[in-house]
Amino acid sequence: MTELKPDSQVFVTVTGTNYYFELKPFELGTKVSLTKDVRNHHDNEAIAVILPILGKVGYVANSPYTVIRGTYSAGRIYDHLAESCLGIVRFITDKNVILEVYPDKRLDLDIDIDVVNNDSAYFDTKKLPPKGEQSF
């Protein structure tokens, strides 16, 4: 089994994008989470490609028919990864996305969602028509 060295570049092909959002969510430099999909009944070495907020956008290719030459398959890197690690989009073709894998890093997403009061002053200045009358 190939050892993933911290100083070496590791690239993987994203497959299955046609089942999700095609290539639309991907841009050069986009950060994704590579997460082991332990519930995948079709592939026990499945690694899901997750885009924050959007969700699953594909899988790391694991078939000789889908792995682009020069990239690693999911099976070659699976045992060398934590449950989740960072991937960054480095190449996009008309049909494929290639990610650089950072096994020692992961995404940390921090989103603040606050509840605020509506601006009641807005409603005070608007005169509503009497019930039953419509104004256009």
TrEMBL record:
InterPro entries per record: HIRAN
Entries under Gene3D superfamilies matching the protein: 3.30.70.2330
Which keywords fit this entry according to its UniProt record? Hydrolase, Metal-binding
Q: Does the keyword Metal-binding apply?
A: yes
What Pfam families does the record point to?
Answer: HIRAN
Q: HIRAN domain: from which residue to which, for each copy?
A: 10-61
Membrane spanning segments where? none
**Molecular function per GO:** hydrolase activity, acting on acid anhydrides, in phosphorus-containing anhydrides; nucleic acid binding; zinc ion binding
Q: What is this protein called?
A: HIRAN domain-containing protein
Q: Which organism was this protein described from?
A: Agrilactobacillus composti DSM 18527 = JCM 14202
